[in-house]
Queue: 2 jobs
Job 1
Amino acid sequence: MKTSAEWNCERDALLDALRDFARVMKRRPFDNEQGLRGVSAFALYWFVRKTAPSVVFEVGVWRGFSTWLIEQAAPSAEIHCFDPLFMLQHLIPRRRIGKTYRSPRARYSIEDFSCAPIRELLAGRAGALAFFDDHQNKLPRLLQCKASGIKQVVFDDNMSAPYTHRTLEHERAADPALLDGEIETYETFPALWPVDFRYGDLHLKEAGMGFPVERELRDIYRDRNWHSYVTYVRLR
Ligand SMILES: C[S@@+](CC[C@H](N)C(=O)[O-])C[C@H]1O[C@@H](n2cnc3c(N)ncnc32)[C@H](O)[C@@H]1O
């Protein structure tokens, strides 16, 4: 499990990548509201860049901002997007959803990830990554990845506070040994700036790593409270 001290050792690399991300974000298709924002959007960019996957399975797409982020971080990866929304979208007034980003490079599916032919889509290729932002329980998703031969997984919303689904943090709290046999690496992206966010009963508070608020980082800094504990897992 990556510690704060270990994240601190990567401070320079994080700041370089954050500046690069700020330049990428100037080309964003829209300002995302309900999905990844601020440092959490950077977290997905960071993990995808680090792992350089050949294939990405994105589960929980909504307006497509995370698809766009994945494309920026892995320009040559094949992308498979899963969301039941694609089946219902035509029933929802366009103004309710707002702008969307759908990529000509991605394959879109209404199947649940657990029912999709992931092994066939992988076709024996190594270096696949799955990203889950679907608000479903995370342990079954992790086991579905294992069964399909995917070893690298990124989860959004992996918080320890009670939320819409059971996170890996909830599993760890209930049984600290449960995940040890499955997981080789577990890295929860840190807050780069202080976080103090209340939403209903949810209260997120983080001290942050004290990053500078440079002029070009201000848009990301402004969204710092949308911290969603983006977590990278590498299975054994
Ligand atoms: C928070 S939104 C995703 C936001 C998006 N990743 C972003 O960053 O902009 C959650 C999405 O999960 C989708 N969802 C719900 N159940 C799902 C399932 N079983 N499989 C895939 N997506 C699901 C919802 O339709 C919704 O679009």
Note: The chain is about 35% helix and 20% strand.
Job 2
Amino acid sequence: MNPIAFAIPVFLVLIGLEFWVAHSRGVTVYRLKDSLTSINVGIMSEFAKAMGGLISIVMYSLITDRFGSYVWDLSNPMTWVSALILYDFCYYWVHRTGHEINILWASHVVHHSSEEFNLSTALRQSSTGFLFRWIFYIPLALLGYPVKVFVIVGLIDFVYQYWVHTQLIGKLGWLEYVMVTPSNHRVHHGQNDYCIDKNYGGIFSFWDRMFGTYAAERDEESPVYGIRKPLESWNPLWANFHHFLLIWDQVKSAQRWQHKLMYLFGKPSWSPEQNNTVGVFQTATFSRFDTPVSGVLRKISFIGTVSGVALLMVFFFVQSGLSTNARMAYCTVMILALGAIGWIMTRARDHGGTGSAGAQTHA
Ligand SMILES: [Zn+2]
Ligand SMILES: [Zn+2]
């Protein structure tokens, strides 16, 4: 059974708890449409991974069987500790390149597309990242860490990152120097100038200090969450593919092959005119994307997301008994249904909505 099946109820209970604590403190950290979108994106990524047939585990096993000659003692705690540290080091580079190379940003951008920051944001995971992220973990395979170790430390790294997506926990003193915390991960999700391309760590923050990408949260300038090219949609399909489509257009229209390559492998902020200039972020004029979704539509969307979670849990329970065709059909229908929910929620804007989507002026 996929271990994520056991994590999902815990994730959802913690979302409820965070909502309740925030409510009792009189602060608002959740917006329904945003949270439903984050959960829908998370469900979609699990179905996409299921369609991908465990590519990362297959590739990792092939490499470690062929080249990983060292035999690790799995009863020795140091095996697990060293694997976790090395995994997190590789994660730092997965994550950093995910922000600094345009074609990889096209995949990771979905995680940053929310303009809120709460535990549901953690569930905004890419549906395409699983196709290539395993490449960054080849060092573990070459060192001979068994695939079981790779999977377990990967899960620890993933689950750890859940709790850091909250605004309800302040700075944590000396822990900020060693671990990824809510405070330094808030900076990572910020679009303020001081937040751009900072704090890539998964579990440990000392990688950022070592490689010069650390920034502490500023008390005088709280992070404004989101991305400089706002998503302006509640559709998880659009969240996953909009930047790929943008790159496709850019590459097609570029006249010189050097420019085509830069659009693929340069920084996301690169353009022939501006080079790598990101532009100054205007905190005062920022406003979050919204759409006037009616009460009925809100209920339909809510029921749709709850059904999506339930059908994902059902899938985890029955998938081993399904034929490949049935599994693919199940995943395809679910992905399209999630896209339809997001499309309906976003479409309200195009029918007399007053969304603030156009308020951002930055590139
Ligand atoms: Zn990121
Ligand atoms: Zn995050």
Note: The chain has 14 helices and no strands.
